[in-house]
Sequence to fold (478 residues):
Amino acid sequence: MKRVYEATWTSLQNHRTPKWLREAKFGIYTHWGLYSVPACGPNGSWYARNMYHKDTPQFAYHEKTFGPATEFGYKDFIPMFTAENFDPEEWAKLFKDSGAKFAGPVAEHHDGFSMWDSHSNPWNAARMGPKQDIVGRLETAIRDQGMKFMTAFHHFEQWWWYPHWRRDCDVSKQEYAGLYGPIHNLDSFDESANVWLEQDPPSGAFHNMWRTKIDEVLQGYQPDLLWFDFGLKWVQEDYKKQLLADYYNKEAEWGTDLALAYKNHDLVPGVALIDYELGRMDKLTYYDWITDTSVDDQGAWGFVKDAGFKKASTLVHNLVDNVSKNGYLLLNVGPKADGTIPDEAKSLLKSMGDWLRINGEAVYETTPWFVYGEGPTEMTEAGMFSEQHEVLYTAEDYRFTCTDNAIYATCLGWPKGVSKIKSLGRLYSEEISSVTMLGSDERLSWDLSREGLEISVPKKQPCQHAFVYKITRRKGLL
Fold:
């Protein structure tokens, strides 16, 4: 019988990260919306806000490319967002082949444009632009691939997203309030001094609309994971508790286990899964967590024409490092406005899939070991946005995971000659049945002492990016 949750923090602390997510480790989500049309960074998903703010690159780009915001507002991108090449089955197959076990879209970003067939918000992709239920079509395609389905929500940020004090633009017009949010704080910004004045707190009606949109997605698509951006901080506490209780209680109705992710200290510890945007932890933690990062190398999130892309080794190392420290990876892909996924992103996902097909048993259905790893390379920052201080790992850096039957030591570079793994010196020789490298059929010699486990290196690399030694445990010692 499923537990019944009450809208109290003490009751909600009884919820645990579901087994499927603890075993899955790796998922993909997509930032795709009206902001994909201009495709201008540095953060493409913030275009809707910055195009109205002077002294931003997106403001200058907008005036040069589309004209002043007084004449061409964000709403005017809707007819240009036609998604003519959107193929949800192709997306889902790509995500599956990457090795991801769950996937889904940002259902609504800060910009107020819903990507599902919303009955409460006429500004949605089913009625305008693509004239398709994007969330619904992806839910079907992703589940058909045997994956769990997730949706991400950023829509509470809409309250302060648009500068309603720009009375010369469409953002301050009541007829567009469904997209741009309730008109308020018309005098909240001193433009001459570039200073924000005190703003009104979000209204009860705005809270109710925030919840109504979530309920539409819950009722229509039954997501296995809800992910919330930083706007959750400003949601009134009772609304948060009631949402979590109502969502977790869907487990009994839907016959599945559910997860919810959030940022910072926007919820009470222990009631949901903490997310570190563009960052991760530097040590093994006693709680589980998730990273959300992107295939692009500048935090563009949505597709940006001139953004570069990360290396495949960076993404593989990110996943391996996270899992060794009790974390998971949520990887973002930003499709183009027409619905195609950039070739560079496809190549990266293929590389991750190639690596996981050989080494996935060191990731899926594992737990961290007693220590997360060893080696000379150390992170200089941890937590949110620590990725900007990214480090480059070497063949002397190892990360550990384990199952009941084996310990996995993943080397983050190709070792030469002999691998000596000091942390494994805590083992007893009678514990070890065999030592192999995943993907290789070469016989490896090994020697164990208190100083570590020495392993002969295969002559041929079985894959790229990282290499996994499997230390199989001998059964029946007790």
Remarks:
- The mean pLDDT is 96.
